[in-house]
Amino acid sequence: MVFDEADRIATIELEQDRDVVRARSRVADAMKECGSSELMQTRFVTAVSEVVRNALTHAGGGTLAIYAMPNKRQVGIECRDCGKGIEDIDAAMADGFTTRRGSMGRGLGGAKRLSKTFAIDSSPGKGTTVRMIGACSLR
Question: Which GO terms describe its molecular function (predicted)?
Answer without folding.
Answer: ATP binding; protein serine/threonine kinase activity
